[in-house]
Amino acid sequence: xxxxxxxxxSLYNVGRGRARYVKLFADTLKDPDEIWExxxxxxxxxxxxxxxxxxxxERRYVLMVCDRTENGWQGTTAFYSKAEGYxxxxxxxxxxxxxxxxx
Length: 103
What we know:
Blueprint: E1 2-5, E2 10-13, H1 22-30, E3 34-40, E4 43-53, E5 59-69, E6 72-81, H2 84-90, E7 94-98
Antiparallel strand pairs: 1-2, 3-4, 3-7, 4-5, 5-6
């Protein structure tokens, strides 16, 4: 699957079997459960985290990583994983957003 990026008029490949998760990745950016901001060596990045339930009723996690550039935020990578421990390690830096849950 290829995605169009209008600013540079180039196409980006969504590889490694991730094409089927593109909608989940977009939903994670639009409606994350958490956003973590990390500054390392003058570089600022954000981790957008969302917990989802798959068709089998199993809990999975979506992680989007974005870097701040001079032109704004740019996505650098995305993951769909069942590894809660890995996602927990990505909760680093300062939590700048947490979705409020009813109740």
